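A quick word before the example. In earlier lectures we treated sequence and structure as two separate objects. From today on, think of them as two lines of the same record. Here is RagB/SusD family nutrient uptake outer membrane protein written that way.
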Amino acid sequence: MKNILYSTCLLMMLVMSSSCNKWLDLQPRDGITRQEFWKTKEDVLAAVSGCYTSLLAPPPGIGDKSLLEYMFIYGELRADMITGGPSITTEETDIINVNITQDNTIARWAAFYRTINYCNTVLDFAPGVKATDPTFTDAALNGYVAEALTLRSLMYFYLLRTFRDVPLKLTATVKDTDLQDLPKTKQADILKQIITDLKKAEQGAVTTYGSTRFDKGRVTKFTVNALLADVYLWMEDYPNCITECNKIISSQRFALVGAGSGWYNNVFFRGSSIETIFEFDQAIENPFYNLLVNTRRRFIGSPFLSTEIFIPDDVDPDNNYDIRPDSYYNSAFTIQKYGTENPSYVKWQAYRYSDIMMIKAEALALTGGGVEALALVDELRLRRNAVNATKVTVDPSETEALCDYILAERAREFAFEGKRWFDLLRHAKRNNYSRIDILLDIAAKTVSPTLQQSAITKFRDPNSHYLPIYQSELFTDPNLVQNPFYTK
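And the structure line, produced from the sequence above:
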């Protein structure tokens, strides 16, 4: 952790010469500048913009995966919807086979903490700008703070679902005296901090920037509500989850795009659709081209897609078909959801209206609202032209069967969006891991035959459901302790 923060600090600051420690101004894309930079509201906006830019690519000169690539890998690689392509790496194969060690570089969390540090810097320095810029209003400050709090919360939500307990850093590292050796904070305590931060963000966030593109590509009040709903669902706080979903639904600002041929182009390629709540606006090199598309791609769609998830219509498959799979992957299982060219500007959908519908449906199913939950699933299926082959007749009072049906529909709706593993884990861990069978079935389907029994045995231990702390973090921070499963 210490090494991450220090290297981030060095990369985000320029020095006049080896004999001078005065901070120099940075380009706005870097997001972090010397303290003297924080003089005007335009400086604050530039820093906030840097937080968003960090979601798309590492800083120049940093040999690391993009944050988007980590989000995809963490949310998909241990699940059942992708498998190895021609150039899958040994480390990635080890993740699939539940053969994970602390020297696996996929367990590096630096990209997330870089963005967290950018957000912390905005939170620490932005309030002081009011003293030097009389035109910087409280409303503007509160809006920027809301954006930084929400992005930081999103980063921690990914980290805690991937590693469970992680260091919680709430102040900026901008000089060497800010460096700390931090221990891990319990997942439950980080979740409490996220709720606190998002409740504050909700008060300051705007409902609109007066621009559709900004409303979809920057944090709004509805982004906060969506993330809160997702967090509450993970925490099994279903009443509050439903409340947050209802705030979005009742706003009447969002709706499902129809089942016409333009659905994919409207939502993913053009972006800023009525269905989108928050998207990452790709305006740079497409990180998914090498990952999913070119001839040396590392991942392809799983063969289970056509036999278990997108089952063809059993009566007239040529004329009656779900609109989703043809936009997601082709007959060779090449994943084309993020475009087939580089550069590509297909948007990464963090939250869509359909996500809120399915989050609410899941919460309703677990609180006696099975009838309404089924209605939400049916509404989504109707707009996606889902076929009868994937329809299940479910008694609304049968909670487990209804949750399985919702989980299956989430697989169809959010294929390759970095959500599948987290969905599986959330369902499996509920009620003290009463559905551990979900993860055991995944291991039996996806792990190499010679390693299946070992993987199933490992998955019976909940500690194995989280990645190890990367070994270099343990070397540089003596207060960090390796996650339990990886100390054996």
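Notice the following. Residues 2-33 have pLDDT under 50 and may be disordered. We will return to this example when we discuss secondary structure assignment.
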